[in-house]
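Q: Fold this one first, please.
A: Sequence and structure below.
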Amino acid sequence: MTNDFGWSDLAGRFRLTVEEREVAGQRLRVPLAGNVEELLDELIAKGPDHEDVKDERIPYFAECWPSSLVLAEHLLANPALVAGQQVLELGCGLGLAGTAAGIAGASQVLMTDYLDDALAMARLTWGLNLGTGASVAHLDWREPDPAMATKVIIAADVAYEARHFQPLVAAFTQLLLPGGTLWLTEPSRHIAKEFISLLNQHGFDCQTSLHWLEDRGIRHRIQLHRISRTIG
């Protein structure tokens, strides 16, 4: 039987559709959930004392975020950034950026997330575009696994709440090897300045470029940060 990369398990549950997107001249197949509001309602219905609600395990994996599109575009337009490299994706969600890294020629891509459903969607995105099985793993930013450390890390829109800043800086410190580079995109949120400042204080160098994305009639202002270690 042909491997459907998890489609049969996910399609009914999330009312999946597949949308083709042109990214840096490549046609990418992106699975999208058609019941985002229902997924949010299911989470809220668990009650304020439920672990999933307390920890805000929101189904971000159900949508294709502008920051992930810009990161995917950057990698596909500049394949030398990842070609032949081992790449770690943090907070993979749909796995779009990780899949782009695979298409761009990365020797290995490990897509990680906190939610099992996100990992399942990332497997599907990878399979739909590369036709092979994906490498995925559970990763909690608060308890990063040093064994996953690598020289190329990618992350789209992970610094969206101030409470995540310290755990992310600690995770970056453990997971980015000396001489490595982390590519981070975010939608120009005001609090991102605080996060970048915190990274600078902890020995990271951040170079930022501005990118504009037209998506569904909306123009998005996305910042791309090249983050490297200035001290060991």
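Q: Good. Now the second chain.
A: Here it is, same layout.
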Amino acid sequence: MDRPLNRNTLMHAVGSLLAIIALAYFVHTMLTYWAQASNLLLQAKVLLGALAALAALIIGYVLSALAWRQICVSLGAHLSAPATLRIYFVSQFGKYLPGNIAQHAGRLALSVKEGVAAPTVILSQLVEIVLVMSLVAVVAAATGLSDLLEAMPGTEMFTGTRLIMVAGLALLLMLLGIWLLHRRGQLGRLLRSLRDLMFSKHGLTHLAAATALALANTAFATAALYVIAATIAGTGMLSPWMIACAYTVSWLVGFVTPGAPAGIGIREALMLGMLSASMMPAQGAAIVVVFRIVTTLTDLLVFVAGLCLARRRRAVTAV
């Protein structure tokens, strides 16, 4: 007898379908403008810009890992900086697996091996997700989300009162999450841990440091996209605020879409639509392609670096 389709499976199926549709849209657009985009991709200045973006993203990775460490320390965990980099670098590659949970499960397993209690790791990741998503959403709003959406063709539905409706839906989803935690008996423990985190001087200090590091990571990622965009489209009509908004909005939507590994498809389609509002579609397509290549290469290099750090630690321990 077949097992009934549960809600998580349904959500991942819908998310995967959305990712496939978005990816198909992006591929279609890319093929339409490939003759122009391919010439842009092969320029020497674009390759140099890609290398600069790669360096910025690697720095952002380190900052993001250290931000998570600050959250762990605020919760009473003892986690060294080298151990943090090993865990974070290796586990983050799991985001390319469907479901958007492999990186968190991997980080949990590796952290427990380092002696960190499992509940502390889980709570640190929950705090990290809420913190990063909140910061990214604030940056998106501060850099002109409404103006950018109004400039995009066919997005009138997102402006004005519709944005309020979207915010209301986000609030309902948050309340649903709180209710589910309550049903599972986890809400009380979570609130007590957050209370200890928020109302202690020790916790606030480290949480403030985590916030600054996470915000710096967003700044470096935005700078990476800006460098790539500047080498392809020039700086004449290029606004840093528009680039920041395009990056944060596409990242946020890609992150919350279940079933889209590393936001593939969703982020490209959304970023392409945003960039095309202020430049030629061929330029926007080239920028998105280069940025995805650079981010994927960054993830791979960081993963290899994490494996090397782990191997070095084993070698030192064995001596």
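Q: Anything worth noting on the second one?
A: Residues 281-318 form the longest helix (38 residues).
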